[in-house]
Inverse folding.
């Protein structure tokens, strides 16, 4: 029985710089994963609903506008509210190091800043997704 | 006739005339050992091929520059993009920059403003004041330019899908200061096609967006004649990961689409084309970049002359603003970015830019601090005053390498444009996802090359070191959203709401019909209708764009 | 959550994953849940890549939501044959419904299947049907011209074409009549609409004598929401027709659906047995050694099966 890893890659907020998000999506696909790509301007609510309906193992969000401290914890909180806290949440984009502890405290399991080799986030997902069915 | 004869003719004619009207910076330009530096150097032989493909500065095909004296007359405009948080804070930064010797203003707006949401819209949550200043109504715009006489500065605004509204607000503030619209100088970006391709701040679908653009062209031609009505931008196309050829090709193809739309709307090419300007990226590969700018100038002038039969030389000139490449900045060892920016500054100025924004070293991390903005500006000033590259025009011309690259970028970009024509034009090519796919592929392959170490990025995949997390980063306070919302409520309770309703209804009617929208929008901003209300009204008629993603 | 729906979306989503990842275990999930629900309308949307299938789906969802109906969507995108990975992007066009409790959207990678659906699509649609959605929409991959799987599950298949395809219509001709219950000419804002209509009508006319249901042709501009009401009307005409004359259409479809399931199952089981006993591997070795070939082996297989079947 083959269990495919499914990942949602989303761009929350209004920021339109999707070079990073698209790169991550392609790299995950090339690593054999199924990537649900929802494009720009996603609200935390729509991200969480999508994650649930698609039953993804992980949600990755890229933000370059500085809105990460608002939007990423909101997604974590909503997932929890809907009983889906087993879904892994990671972030990327222009995120200052000084914000990372705050994000981690708020349930974002990893933050990948520009220049992170794709191997690193691919392995992170492979190693950390839930192991159940 | 030999090149020498042509050169002499140019020297006496075009150049001489220009110098007699606008004297050069110095009576004479000299090397350190006293040799006179000529305004321009050219080959002794080569004949018609040289004249056809290179020419002289200020003459068709403008490969060597759009003005006859270039930086010997006046340096490029040093224009730092700035804006963050509230109108009050940005106003302070502008005054600081003007005081530090900057020669033009460049306004960055936050994302809700760029897309047309008020600060109290749910989509704006977390974004207010983040990447630029938040503008909800004329009130904010009045504060933004308080104490800055708009008749005396030139202002560039990075605004696209909502350019019609922000330009209207600018005009309204100027009028309140006592300057009529025809006195105003500046630029709006107003380039919606690259938003669909690369930058993402679109609101309406392509068709109505193109109409808004031609409405602005038409309105400005008769009311704000000195305004640059569009800045056709390759900058973001490059940032999205394209290569140099794609940057030129897709930007000029966007330009072609705008010219076609304007002609179709009944405008005379030689009336609006002189107001078109461009915006390019200056990347690290110095010589390739210089060739890129030269090739772009040549290709555009040919397009305007041959394809659109533009007769006015001003219509054939590719004038452009440049910004150093944000995507080359690294979060690692951020001071290295100062060096990158210096190289890119050389690329832009050796390439003949009309104005330049230099990025600050810390922009990969956060909004730039005042200190790093100053270093970025100083970089330009050092290149201008100390490097000598401004003493002669197009100094790299004649380098075998630069000339070969100029030819190959020209030829390859031309091929792309032909391909896009076959697809039915740029709007069609974008809708089909062709352009996005091409950029996407370049971006992906570059990234993979970096990961394999085939491309070296100093401090990132080679010469790394352990670093302390940077300090002193500028952060935007979340309370801005709260104060912005309070301001909106204030405005809404003190304005004449009946007038607002009337003016919005007029916008709606104009949007449904074919009357120029600009006068209606101008009237609406004057009664303090908010940006969100105006954009929302237009959306009722125009609908909202959804991206076509290609991966 | 609409209380007509039997499952919480999270549970439904997890069941789908189970079915998708464990093909042989699917019937454990489905055998007690499955209910042939004649009330559910199943719409298939197929057509070449980029024709506007997802955009049209988005509009159709909106129409049904306006009528208060719950809608489930399965959208299939191609998986990479090399890595097995996939980028599933159909949802982008359906973003307005992401927070609607009456709409459930699931994206699937085709995972090696060639007929336009994924291996588990039919099971998943059956699961969704049993969970009580009023309407189900399945969007096929849109890469080939062999997208015929969708016929075995959908009441009504919309074939989405765009003007200016020229030769493509010719190429599609072969199987086209069998697939389309409704022709949708999307992107009718582009040039060449009338030519495409004429071509389609010509094909319909040529085949008129053997058609029970004559497929209508509808023009739409999905991005501008034009022509969608017409599409809805034709879908409802088709529904009425199916109710009146379509009993054998439905029966045929169930039978061919089951035939396919049985085929997959029997084939899969036999293959598993052959592999378990090392027979399959052995054959392959014989092939490369030149001692046997696939046709000889098939003959042997026939013999073996006859013995096995008659034994039991
Ligand atoms: N001009 C025009 N463009 C349309 C129309 N319908 C869809 N599009 C555009 O066509 C592109 C593809 O639309 P999709 O709905 O994703 O097409 P699809 O058939 O689902 O594509 P795949 O799933 O990738 O095969 C998008 O850019 C849409 O905006 C239409 O009626 N007119
Ligand atoms: Mg689709």
């Amino acid at each position: 029985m083959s269990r495919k890893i499914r990942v949602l890659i989303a761009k929350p907020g209004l920021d339109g710089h999707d070079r990073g998000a698209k790169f991550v999506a392609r790299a995950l696909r090339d690593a054999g994963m199924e990537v649900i790509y929802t494009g720009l301007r996603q609200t935390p609510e729509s991200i969480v609903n999508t994650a649930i309906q698609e039953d993804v193992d992980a949600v990755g969000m890229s933000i370059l506008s500085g809105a990460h401290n608002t939007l990423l914890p909101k997604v974590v909180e909503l997932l929890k509210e809907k009983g889906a806290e087993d879904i892994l949440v990671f972030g990327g984009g222009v995120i200052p190091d000084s914000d990372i502890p705050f994000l981690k405290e708020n349930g974002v399991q990893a933050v990948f800043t520009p220049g992170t080799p794709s191997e690193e986030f691919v392995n992170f997902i492979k190693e950390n997704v839930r192991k159940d069915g | 006739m030999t090149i020498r004869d042509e050169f002499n003719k140019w020297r006496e004619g075009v150049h001489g005339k220009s110098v007699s009207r606008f004297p050069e910076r110095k009576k004479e330009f000299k090397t350190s050992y006293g040799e006179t530096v000529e305004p321009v150097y050219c080959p002794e032989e080569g004949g018609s091929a040289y004249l056809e493909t290179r020419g002289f500065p200020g003459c068709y095909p403008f490969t060597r520059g759009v003005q006859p004296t270039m930086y010997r007359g006046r340096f490029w405009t040093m224009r730092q993009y700035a804006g963050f948080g509230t109108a009050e804070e940005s106003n302070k930064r502008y005054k600081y920059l003007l005081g530090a010797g900057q020669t033009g203003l460049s306004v960055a707006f936050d994302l809700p403003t760029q897309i047309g949401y008020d600060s109290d819209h749910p989509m704006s949550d977390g974004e207010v004041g983040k990447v630029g200043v938040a503008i909800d109504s004329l009130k904010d715009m009045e504060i933004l330019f308080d104490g800055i006489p708009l008749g005396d500065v030139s202002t560039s605004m990075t605004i696209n899908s909502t350019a019609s509204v922000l330009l209207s607000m600018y005009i309204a503030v100027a009028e309140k200061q006592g300057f009529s619209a025809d006195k105003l100088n500046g630029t709006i970006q107003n380039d919606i096609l690259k938003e669909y391709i690369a930058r993402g701040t679109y609101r309406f679908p392509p068709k109505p967006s193109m109409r808004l653009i031609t409405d602005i062209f038409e309105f400005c031609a008769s009311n704000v004649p000195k305004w640059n009505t569009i800045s056709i931008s390759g900058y973001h196309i490059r940032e999205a990961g394209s290569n140099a050829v794609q940057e030129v090709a897709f930007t000029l193809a966007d330009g072609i689409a705008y010219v076609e739309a304007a002609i179709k709307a009944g405008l005379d090419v030689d009336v609006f084309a002189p107001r078109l300007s461009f915006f390019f990226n200056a990347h690290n590969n110095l010589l390739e970049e210089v060739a890129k700018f030269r090739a772009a100038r040549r290709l555009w002038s040919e397009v305007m002359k041959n394809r659109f039969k533009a007769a006015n030389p001003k219509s054939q000139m590719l004038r452009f603003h440049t910004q150093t490449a944000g995507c080359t900045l690294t979060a690692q060892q951020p001071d290295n970015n100062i060096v990158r920016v210096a190289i890119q500054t050389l690329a832009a100025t050796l390439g003949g830019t009309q104005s330049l924004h230099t990025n600050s070293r810390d922009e990969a991390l956060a909004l730039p601090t005042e200190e790093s903005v100053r270093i970025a500006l100083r970089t330009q000033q050092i290149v201008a005053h100390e490097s000598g590259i401004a003493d002669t025009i197009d100094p790299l011309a004649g380098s075998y390498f630069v000339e070969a690259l100029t030819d190959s970028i020209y030829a390859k970009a031309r091929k792309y444009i032909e391909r896009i024509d076959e697809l039915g034009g740029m709007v069609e090519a974008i809708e089909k996802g062709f352009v996005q796919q091409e950029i996407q592929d370049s971006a992906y392959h570059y990234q993979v090359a970096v990961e394999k170490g085939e491309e070296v990025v100093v401090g990132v995949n080679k010469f790394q070191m352990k670093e302390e997390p940077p300090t002193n980063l500028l952060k935007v306070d979340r309370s801005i959203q709260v104060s912005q919302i309070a301001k909106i409520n204030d405005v809404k309770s003190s304005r004449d709401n009946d007038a607002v309703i009337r003016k919005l209804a007029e916008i709606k009617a104009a949007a449904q019909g074919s009357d120029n929208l600009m006068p209606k929008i101008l009237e609406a901003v004057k009664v303090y209708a908010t940006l969100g209300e105006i954009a929302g009204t237009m959306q009722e008629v125009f609908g909202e764009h959804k991206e076509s993603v290609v991966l | 959550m609409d209380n007509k729906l039997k499952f919480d979306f999270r549970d439904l989503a997890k069941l789908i994953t189970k079915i998708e990842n464990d093909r042989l275990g699917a019937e454990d999930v489905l055998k007690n849940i499955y209910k042939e629900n004649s009330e559910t309308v199943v719409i298939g949307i197929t057509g070449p890549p980029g024709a506007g299938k997802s955009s049209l789906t988005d509009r159709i969802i909106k129409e049904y939501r306006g009528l208060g109906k719950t809608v489930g969507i399965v959208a299939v995108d191609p998986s990479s044959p090399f890595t097995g990975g996939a980028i599933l992007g159909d949802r982008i066009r359906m973003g307005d419904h992401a927070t609607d409790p009456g709409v459930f959207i699931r994206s699937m990678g085709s995972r090696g299947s060639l007929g336009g659906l994924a291996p588990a699509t039919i099971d998943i649609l059956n699961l969704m049907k049993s969970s009580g959605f009023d309407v189900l929409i399945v969007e096929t991959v849109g890469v080939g011209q062999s997208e015929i799987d969708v016929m075995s599950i959908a009441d009504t298949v919309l074939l989405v074409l765009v003007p200016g395809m020229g030769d493509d219509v010719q190429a599609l001709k072969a199987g086209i009549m069998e697939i389309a219950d409704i022709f949708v000419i999307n992107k009718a804002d582009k040039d060449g609409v009338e030519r495409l209509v004429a071509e389609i009508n010509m094909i319909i006319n040529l085949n008129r004598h053997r058609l029970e249901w004559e497929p209508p042709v509808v023009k739409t501009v999905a991005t501008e929401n034009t022509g969608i009401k017409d599409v809805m009307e034709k879908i409802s005409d088709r529904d009425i027709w199916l109710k009146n004359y379509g009993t054998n259409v439905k029966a045929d479809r169930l039978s061919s659906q089951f035939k396919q399931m049985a085929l997959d199952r029997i084939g899969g089981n036999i293959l598993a047995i052959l592999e378990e006993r090392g027979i399959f591997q052995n054959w392959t070795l014989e092939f490369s050694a030149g001692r046997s070939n696939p046709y000889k082996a098939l003959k042997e297989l026939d013999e073996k099966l006859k013995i096995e079947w008659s034994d039991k």
Summary: Chain B has 22 helices and ten strands.
